[in-house]
Amino acid sequence: MKNRAGICRIGITTSKKIGNAVERNKSRRLIRAAFQNVYKEYGEYLEGYDFVFVARGRTRYKKSYDLEQVMVQHLKKGNILPR
Questions:
Q1: Which three-class secondary structure state does DSSP give residue 2?
Q2: What is the pLDDT of residue 6?
Q3: Is the pLDDT of residue 11 over 90?
């Protein structure tokens, strides 16, 4: 969603369905690491947006590289990144 702040902000949600606190924190760390890599490459396009990422049950088993590819794919689908 666009914001008026002119900066990029993210939010990460994890429910108790993901697992215990350790597994939820691992999921958040993976999402954060993947987004940092996406931001390094596409930061100029992401300025002025708020993003909310929802961790799923399989998130904790993935690598940040895999999550990064999915993020880029969805950002392109949402017309935030150029195709």
A1: strand
A2: 85
A3: yes
Amino acid symbol at 55: A
Residue type, 66: D
Q: Tens of pLDDT along 24-83?
A: 999 999 999 999 999 999 989 999 999 999 999 999 899 999 999 999 999 999 999 988
Give the side-chain half-sphere CA count within 13 A for 21.
0
> 59 and 31 in contact (C-beta within 8 Å)?
yes
Q: Helix or strand or coil: residue 45?
A: helix
Q: Which residues contact residue 46 at a Cβ distance below 8 angstroms, ignoring those fewer than 6 apart? A: 8, 38, 39, 75, 80
What is the pLDDT confidence band of residue 14, given thresholds at 50, 70 and 90? very high
Q: How far apart are CA 64 and CA 31, in angstroms?
A: 7
Rounded to whole angstroms, what are the CA distances from 75 to 18, 23, 24, 78?
24, 26, 24, 5
